[in-house]
């Protein structure tokens, strides 16, 4: 049985980015990534909208988003075959002039060094004319936001790294507070360090490994892909309405939309709800009335995973000596992808992370 330096469980964006930076920045070569699905990013990472949105709720996450934007907009030589970030920009809007949420977003973004500024209604309509009947009154615009090529990014992170697909973890072999090996896909893999980067399945894997992990909450969200929409343009920035909650972006002559719903759900129970389209169209009637007759091609559900304080979970386990967490990215996985991997790789290797990791440390649960 071959022994690896690191086994990463999960070939979504968190696991892929961690493996990449371990190899690139710290010279780790014997890395194995295990993926239960049929391909990398076949779980939540491959089912989201791929929006890079730096205007977020907390300074720690905004800082990670800005660093990721800088990496993806100017990646290292030979990192990717084609650009992985299309910087179309993005709008965040509210309907009530007394709503102070945009002020909070602006303060947080500017504190984290994110380039963002207020714009009036007419500026939004110049970019997305189909919103002329929408009721928003003010907006923030982030010109360096955009849309990520999810498959291209994950493929670039995993280039040159051993990946085993269809390899669901079924158990761990442990001794004296350490993991010695993991059982997956009918085989056993030994390693000096094990990384859990499995999104909604992370808490269950931690318990299987003998840890007492923090409670993580998976929440379901629906996405809807439309047939071609007259007037839709690939140059449109993404549009995110705070009231009602709704977002959309251009995709393949149509739109990719979400009603921004949240339902707590166990990962093994994930299934799209037949009510999803009702939720979406209720929001469209207020948030983007000209899209009320938009033709739906298909819809699906994905899971975002949260810790209690809405920060990530990145760091060594509080109980198992050689277990490391990279999870609970709460829907910001694409937005913060490279910075999360960079932070995780630095902590694993005993280096200094480029940003303060303490808001995301498992130690806050002890």
Description:
There is one protein chain. By secondary structure, this protein is α+β, with helices and mostly antiparallel strands. The chain folds into 2 domains: 3-46 and 151-216 and 308-365, FAD/NAD(P)-binding domain, CATH 3.50.50; 90-143 and 217-304, D-Amino Acid Oxidase, subunit A, domain 2 (D-Amino Acid Oxidase, Chain A, domain 2, 2-Layer Sandwich), CATH 3.30.9.10. 24% of the residues lie in helices and 30% in strands. It has 8 helices and 20 strands. It has helices at 13-26, 59-73, 101-111, 121-127, 150-158, 202-208, 276-287, 337-348, and strands at 3-9, 31-34, 51-52, 85-86, 90-94, 117-120, 138-142, 146-148, 162-164, 169-175, 178-184, 187-196, 217-226, 238-242, 245-251, 254-258, 263-264, 296-306, 313-316, 323-327. Strand 11 and strand 12 (187-196) form a beta hairpin. Helix 2 (59-73) packs across helix 8 (337-348). The longest helix is centred in the first third of the chain and has 15 residues, at 59-73. The protein starts with a strand and ends in an 18-residue tail after the last helix. The relative contact order is 0.21. The mean pLDDT is 96.
Question: Keywords for this structure?
Answer:
single chain, 366 residues, alpha+beta, FAD/NAD(P)-binding domain, D-Amino Acid Oxidase, Chain A, domain 2, 2 domains, 9-stranded mixed β-sheet, 8-stranded mixed β-sheet, 8 helices, 24% helix
């Amino acid at each position: 049985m071959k022994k690896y330096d690191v086994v990463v469980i999960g070939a979504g964006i968190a696991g892929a980015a961690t493996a990449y930076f371990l190899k690139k920045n710290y010279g780790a070569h014997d890395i194995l990534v295990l993926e239960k699905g049929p391909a990398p990013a076949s779980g939540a990472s491959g089912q989201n909208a791929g929006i890079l949105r730096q205007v977020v709720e907390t300074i720690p996450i905004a800082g990670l988003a800005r660093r990721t934007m800088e990496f993806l907009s100017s990646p290292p030589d030979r990192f990717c075959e084609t650009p992985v970030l299309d910087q179309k920009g993005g709008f965040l809007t509210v309907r009530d002039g007394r709503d102070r949420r945009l002020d909070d977003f602006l303060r947080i973004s500017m504190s984290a060094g994110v380039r963002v500024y207020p714009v009036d209604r007419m500026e939004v309509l110049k970019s997305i004319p189909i919103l002329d009947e929408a009721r928003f009154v003010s907006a923030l615009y982030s010109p360096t936001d955009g849309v990520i090529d999810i498959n291209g990014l994950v493929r670039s992170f995993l280039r040159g790294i051993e990946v085993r697909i269809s390899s669901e973890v079924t158990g761990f072999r442990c001794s004296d507070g350490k993991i010695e090996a993991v059982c997956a896909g009918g085989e056993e893999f030994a390693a000096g360090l094990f990384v859990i980067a499995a999104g909604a399945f992370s808490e269950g894997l931690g318990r299987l490994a003998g840890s007492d992990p923090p409670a993580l909450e998976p929440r379901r969200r629906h996405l809807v892909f439309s047939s071609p929409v007259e007037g839709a343009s690939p140059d449109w920035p993404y549009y995110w309405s705070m009231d009602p909650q709704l977002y959309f972006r251009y995709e393949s002559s149509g739109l990719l939309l979400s009603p921004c719903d949240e339902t707590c759900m166990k990962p093994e129970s994930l299934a799209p709800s037949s009510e999803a389209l009702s939720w979406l169209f209720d929001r469209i009637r207020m948030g983007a009335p000209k899209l009320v007759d938009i033709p739906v091609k298909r819809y699906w559900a994905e899971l975002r995973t949260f810790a209690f304080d809405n920060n990530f979970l990145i760091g060594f386990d509080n109980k198992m000596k050689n277990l490391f967490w990279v999870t609970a990215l709460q829907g910001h996985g694409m937005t913060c992808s490279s910075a999360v991997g960079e932070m995780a790789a630095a902590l694993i290797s005993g280096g200094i992370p480029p940003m303060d990791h303490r808001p995301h440390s498992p130690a806050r649960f002890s």
